[in-house]
Amino acid sequence: MPIDVIMPKLEMAQDTGTVVRWLKAEGSTVQKGEPLLEIETDKVAVQVEAPGSGILSRVIAAEGEEVPVGQVIALISSPAEAAAAAPSAPAATPVAQRMAAAHNVDLQQVQTAGRRIEKQDIEAYLARGASQPQAAAPGLARLTPASPLARRLAWERGVAVTQLRGSGLDGAVLAADVRQQGPALPVQSPAFSPVVPEDRKQPIPQDYAPPGRTGTERGRGEGQVPSEGQPDSGYRVIPLKGTRKIIAERVQRSFQSAPHIALTLPVDMTEVRRLMERLSAAAPGHLPAGNGAGSKLGLTAILARCCAVALTHHPRLNAHVVEGSNASLEIREFASVHLGMAVALDDGLIVPVIRDAQAKGLSAIQAEIDDLVRRARAGALKLEEVKGSTFTISNLGMFGIEQFSAILNPPEVGLLAIGAIIPGPLEIQGQMVMRPLMRLTLMADHRAVDGAVGARFLATLKAMLENPYLLLT
Amino acid sequence: MSTLEPRPDELHAAVNGRELTFAEAIREALAEEMRRDPRVFLMGEDVGGAGGVFKVTEGIQAEFTPKRVIDTPISEAGIAGIAIGAALTGMRPVLEIMFGDFTTLVMDQMVNQAAKAYYMSGGKLSVPMVLRTTMGAGRRSAAQHSQSLHAWTSHIPGLKVVIPSTPYDAKGLLKSAIRDNSPVIIFEDKMMYKLKGPVPEGEYTIPLGLADVKREGQDITIVATSSMVHIALSAAERLSEQGISAEVIDPRTLFPLDAQTLISSAKKTSRALIVDEGYRRYGITGELASVITEGAFYYLDAPVRRIAAFDVPVPFSPPLEDATIPNEELVVKTALELLGRR
């Protein structure tokens, strides 16, 4: 049996992956564990390793194609299988071969239900003979033959008819072939062990979309879309694809499924500033140099550290809302804080994760931030570095943004939106004094987090930032 | 009709079991309507004293006098014109054209006059007439007396076309046709006149435009008309021996057409086969197949198949004639092909 290469499921909320590039050509030999292709998920571009050794006998998903997770995207066959499947030698019984020769039948045109072409297959071929339409010319693109019902069922089940073996006339995929496939593809990927939720509705296979079920109507509007940068159109069209499309889909789903609430609290950053000055002045050599000299303690590291500690006191914010085993929603509070950090890219953003942030000191966090940000901008993050976050922080302070609201990073229930530090008046012991103020906005999923819960978390965070020596406790 | 509710004819058969032939059921409908409405009268070749060439109107003239049961000269175009004129002036004529093949002679009257009067007069005129005629091969009547030309009139806006398959349906539909204010053409398969079936005593009508599920099933929909319904039912019985549950649907009227029942059934079974005795090309089967394909496309697991009469003049040679007509064997075979069993 050929080994299926499957679009891996890399994280809870991932529906699809896009094939960016095949690193091996069809027909080439591959070794288990060697990079086979690059895919792009909503988080990163990542290399997928060959799940087994053999010959890449069939590439099913083309470059640029977006494929539901769990779907077979290529087959790796043993050399023997590949030879058997090679078009030059269709297996046939001696009788079948004699009959084929006598009737001038091309064995490659004969279908068989079994492993070898047998006498009755030739007879069936001859009987159908004249009435059969000729197969499409080689290289001519055409639909996979499939009944309308089979297509609809396949779409509902997240299976592409192109992946199925048809039992109907001309090898057409029938409803029974889809039903036989089961509710979802059996998934087995040694590389990533993806899991496909049973009832997950998958996007429509590329070559088919029933009307009224999707906005991507085929055959209409194609070719009318002005090409990128077309001068006379008055506008430039940037198709929503790749990372942009993924971001668009994720934020929309998050915004629509999670009822967002926003709580804003100003924090006096006097003590944090003092801490930063003292630390960089007093102990320059003690902070780790991420990549050479230059590394110094930044505000983000302090915020990350405080946030991680505060989250351990408020586990409800360090949580996911996900579908549980019985298909109803559940809140999962995590013991460890895996802190996502939104990093802006040229056109897009990525959220690398600081693992177990609650257990890491400032220097370790700073070193990790430096490394993650650098590699995020270089597109060199590994997959496990961008998944599994339990809470996300997003900082637009460097742009002077005073405060902002953000879209939650599903399935997380909380996100801290950090504004700029701006001098502002504060009443201290009856005196109006100017202090460096920073507005923190907690975005929360109200399904899991009530206003008061969020407020208490912000209060803890504020207390820590206004008295960072608490970090020593 | 729902599964739980017994059909009125079945219910009746279970209660008192009165059965009539197809011809008797039509005769009863005619007589009841003539008693009910003095504007109703019959005309046609040999409908009076002879009781009709197929004995459908036997005894009617005795009850209703030659004034209301009029024997006409052999001039189809002429008597159709008389019927239309009578209808325009308020009568409700029931015209018999002995063989459907002869409806070619009344086409101008029916297509250009009867079908158009209501529209061209802005609704001031109507033509409440019924044209009864025959269809169906198998009677060894050769090419000019064996055709099923119901597709011709089904094509014309302004005409209604009724195509009953059982005595029960024939009576109920004919009564509705006589009461309808549009010109209605009824095609009766001459081979079915002696077919017996339950017909309850007393008044009932069947609305035009309501298909009937003659047999419920899950695996394949067979849409059949007129005598083909019986072929479909026998085929369904044979299919059931192979564990296949076929649904047989009789549209009963070609216009108005109960498309929804056809489509719903095809959606349920995912496969549809149309059986009709008209010629295949540009015919009823093509129309019904496209109605189903348009309505149930995303539920179909196989192309809609159709079985019709061969596209040849009906042969006089009995074996050849029989070969041109859809039969049970062919329906079973095609159904099995549709189900992927060969």
Structure description:
The complex is a heterodimer of chains A (473) and B (342). With 473 residues, chain A is of the alpha+beta class. Chain A folds into two domains: 133 residues, RNA polymerase II/Efflux pump adaptor protein, barrel-sandwich hybrid domain (OB fold (Dihydrolipoamide Acetyltransferase, E2P)); 215 residues, 2-Layer Sandwich (Chloramphenicol Acetyltransferase), CATH 3.30.559.10. Chain A is built from ten helices and 18 strands. In chain A, the strands form five sheets. Chain A has a six-stranded mixed β-sheet. Chain A has a four-stranded antiparallel β-sheet with strand order 1-8-6-3. Chain B is an alpha/beta fold and 342 residues long. Chain B has two domains: 187 residues, Rossmann fold (3-Layer(aba) Sandwich); 127 residues, Rossmann fold (3-Layer(aba) Sandwich), CATH 3.40.50. Chain B is 38% helix and 19% strand. Chain B has a seven-stranded mixed β-sheet with strand order 3-2-4-5-7-6-12, sandwiched between helices. In chain B, helix 10 packs across helix 11. The two termini of chain B are 33 Å apart. Chains A and B meet through helix 4 of A and loops of B.
